[in-house]
Design a protein that fits this description.
single chain; alpha/beta; Rossmann fold; 7-stranded parallel β-sheet; two-stranded parallel sheet; 9 strands; binds NADPH dihydro-nicotinamide-adenine-dinucleotide phosphate; NADP
Length: about 250
């Protein structure tokens, strides 16, 4: 059995990644969300799969207490360690608001979510990841965090882009140290996933200003992310991948 834990799997891309992972009979999936009981999608899956394939665990990535409780629960479920950590939870509440007008308190909350929550999540689960034989972490990021491509989409999601760029550096920098301990860290852009809450705001902008950009279904995005996670190797550690497996510029 190969184990996977995913954050933010109540809906959107996260829920679809859980569905995709469960297609492989040798996978054991820990699907986490702020409130797993309130997610109709997770409850549907839990009714279909036995607990040796799928376990639901409550996990709010902004709460140290919640992270600690989840780590404790998962340590009991996976005494041999966690093979794959998928850090997926995200927010994009400020969408298209320009820097001139953005509410700085909300911006601070968004940066906290992107950076501080991710640090807490990784600190919490790293011992379990290091204990496993696979030792893989994938951070779901966005091409909007690419510094090189920022000029191509000037008005799109200013604060979200800054948060994702900082997140990319956090994972690349930390990942460089973790590589010395045998841990593989990857970053992935899932594509423009139209049907999710975050993707909806972006897709609206894309249709107006960049109609040449192809969007993907949640199914295509999830299949791509899972393929990147499973097929990229330790040698690829520290790279930023598109959902189709090609490398993205920083
Ligand atoms: P959605 O808005 O559909 O889903 C966001 C998920 O994050 C929900 O499950 C939500 O849970 C969860 N979440 C929010 N806050 C917390 C929290 N404090 N603790 C735990 N979970 C939380 O977004 P997507 O599925 O589209 O996005 C998933 C990831 O993909 C994000 O990191 C996003 O930035 C990234 N991405 C998405 C793109 C797209 O086109 N959709 C493009 C590029 C990147 P809840 O139901 O409890 O609110």
């Amino acid at each position: 059995m190969s184990s996977y834990l995913i954050t933010g799997s109540s809906r959107g891309l996260g829920l679809q990644i859980v569905t995709e992972l469960l297609k492989t009979p040798s996978s054991k999936v820990i699907a986490t969300a702020r409130n797993t009981k309130k997610s109709a999608g997770l409850q549907d899956l839990a009714a279909q799969y036995p607990t040796d394939r799928l376990v639901l665990v409550d996990l709010d990535v902004t709460s140290e207490t919640s992270i600690a409780a989840a780590v404790e629960a998962v340590s009991k479920i996976l005494p041999g360690g966690l093979d794959h950590l998928i850090s997926n939870a995200g927010v994009n509440d400020l969408a298209l608001i320009p820097f001139e007008e953005v509410d700085l308190t909300l911006f601070k909350e968004e940066i906290d979510f992107s950076l501080i929550s991710t640090i807490l999540l990784l600190r919490g689960f790293l011992p379990l990841v290091k204990k496993s034989s696979t030792k893989k972490i994938i951070q779901i990021s966005s091409v909007l965090g690419s510094v090189e491509l920022a000029g191509y989409m000037p008005g799109l999601t200013p604060t979200y882009s800054v948060g994702k760029a900082a997140l990319n550096m956090l994972i690349r920098k930390w990942g460089a140290s973790l590589k010395n301990e045998g841990v593989t860290t990857l970053l992935a852009h899932p594509g423009w996933v139209k049907a999710t809450d975050i993707g909806g705001a972006i897709a609206e902008w894309m249709e107006k200003y960049a109609p040449e950009t192809k969007s993907v279904t949640p199914e295509e995005a999830a299949a791509g992310v899972v393929k990147v996670l499973n097929e990229k190797t330790f040698e690829d550690s520290g790279s930023f991948f598109n959902y189709d497996g090609t490398k993205l510029p920083w």
